[in-house]
Amino acid sequence: MKNFILLIFVFVSTIINAQINFIGFDTTVCGSALTQNYTFTNYSTGGGPSSARHGFRVFKNGIQVHQSTAGNGINSKFAIDMLFINDSIGFLTFRSGQGGNHVLKTNDYGTTWATTNVGGAPNYHETYIVNENTIYTATSYQSFIMIIRSTSNGNKILHDLTPSGTQVIHDNIFGTSLCQRDTLKVAFTYNGSPVNYHFVLHQLSTSIQKQTANDQNTLVYPNPARTFFSFENLSIETSQVQLYSITGSLIKNYSQQDILTNYFHIEDIKNGAYFIRIQSNSSIRSIKLIISN
Questions:
Q1: Are 164 and 32 part of one and the same domain?
Q2: pLDDT tens, residue by residue, 91-148
Q3: How many domains does the chain have?
Q4: Closest-CA residue to 52 (of 25, 81, 73)
């Protein structure tokens, strides 16, 4: 029994004492204005710790253009990062009172802000802007790493509970990268060992029509597809993705690695209409896919 208790203690201590260090993205954000005209400050109102309310203000050339609604407890807002890619379009990251990181976007010179990303691990590292439609946010906590790709069409979450080595993840972005790049690398160390995420960016037209799933959240594209398909808003609880013929025959059963990288090969599948069956802990749904190669 003593040995068993000791093993539990060592295991828990290893997790608590795990060291994740963020090295960075392999490139800087490309843009014209960046942060040079914009600043932010945090403010508080009210009394003691239990009643104080927290929010942030945004300034352009020293003139206030926005003030968030202050909240207390889990509704508190603490701005921690802000970056503009031109004079009107920018992204601001704030931490809520419950420890999550939220990314907001403005299209009107900082006057109004809309949520593009909700969540992320408590330790915020950096946000990288691919273009006005797509950003990546790197976060971590204790022994896991979480990278969130956010677009106006939804989020994709990479939640790595066992960081190690190098992972290659195929991802889809809408529009052209500001830096004219088709790859993005994110580097960490975990207990001194290098951990790298290599995103291969597939640039899609912003006019691509996306097929909506039954729950109006999960999207598949491109559709029609030639060599692969991917999802927007694929639940982190997804346990199985299968491809069926229109007559109900199982054509392909995709692996957990396919689900993790969100890249599903169809080079060996004949042209025609198919159904993608997506199963998670709480639902099973189907999306029609046209293959035309």
A1: yes
A2: 999 988 766 788 889 999 999 998 776 667 888 999 999 888 888 999 998 888 989 8
A3: 2
A4: 73
